[in-house]
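Researcher: First entry.
Model:
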Amino acid sequence: MAAEGGEAETQQKEESKRHTYPLVRTCDMNDELKTECMELCVTACEKFSQNNESAARMIKETMDKKFGPTWQCIVGEGFGYFIEHEVKSLLYMFFGGTTAIIVWKCA
């Protein structure tokens, strides 16, 4: 019985672990833009951890200011996407476990 309780605790701890580093799923940006965008996404998600809409707004507005207009951003969980974007302007990543972030520039 005690062994079963210990196993259940271990399994529960493992399930509650979430990666806190950005996990890039798809990206066609150059390295400099990718690094800057990833840092911005991490900062926004940490600052607005309970409000995905505010995080997306911060990412979009910052990208528009730094790299010109027409950037788009979605932050959330459990969504699919099909988009058209400019070449070398797509980043799809995960942060904090299940929070997905997609950033792209429209033509």
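Researcher: Second entry.
Model:
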Amino acid sequence: MAGNRINYFRENEHKSTYCHIMKRGPWRAVHFDWHFGVDQPEKERKGLITERLEIRSMAEKLNFTIYPSAKNILQTRNLTKPDFLRELHRFKELCASEPCGCILMTISSHGEIVKTDDQGGSESFEIFEDNILTHQDSSAFSRDDSRVPVREIIEVFRDRKLKPIPKIFFIQACRAEENSTTDVDTGIRVGYRQENEFQYQDDPLNRSHSTPYLENSVMIYSTPFGYSAGFSYRIGSHVWKVLQMTLKEILAQVPVIGPVNLLHWLKETNNRLAKSEEYEIDDIEYKPLLSICHTLTRNIIFDTNNN
């Protein structure tokens, strides 16, 4: 009877969690960030330093191995687009060529949504996708040539060897149009079918979001589509701070509630963030609320005692 019970729990674990896959190797993490603005030296941007430390703290508490190392930050900071993509591919190749049980990538940058080249032949709504901004040179932000679509970043990890491994992407960046006067997602037009003819309601809202797709992955944005993200020169990312606080509380309860469940952690973070309708930094409204989309088929469980 005891043997049957053990086999049942092992079989149930395989079906409901990624734990058996995550035991294949170390969990690997990488963080990329860029200066927010060019009018202040790095030493005056305490928020950027605080943010990096918060992300490192979360990764280490969950037993991730940080690329290239916890102390080497220059290799993944303030990169031009070619250097960023080169370093991104190096990290991916490490995960694909060496034992790896889970992938975590975090990005902190400016961001904006850009109308896609492929509009699917539709004249009734416009399709936008998320982009992050990189440095044109060692110190200045740039648009156009230095934009990197989030879709392109996710595609780097489309690899047969990485397909079964859970992949987690945290992105701290604005998700509004360049020089947008609104922080509200305008959505897409709502349609209805009448007899054999499809009709659109008289609704001017006609913007749609193109979401990248990757098996066994979860994408967590720091704000919903169409909103500005919250970052302060003094404290860094609002969302990273709340994520860290929530994780700290969950880990304090681990002997009682067991290992950390990723989706539970994200839900509890949103419970905190949703208590206020809006925030402002320098008179700019932003929405600190995690926007989550995933293709997970199981739960991601961080059993920090067994990794």
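Model: Note on the second entry: The chain has eight helices and 18 strands.
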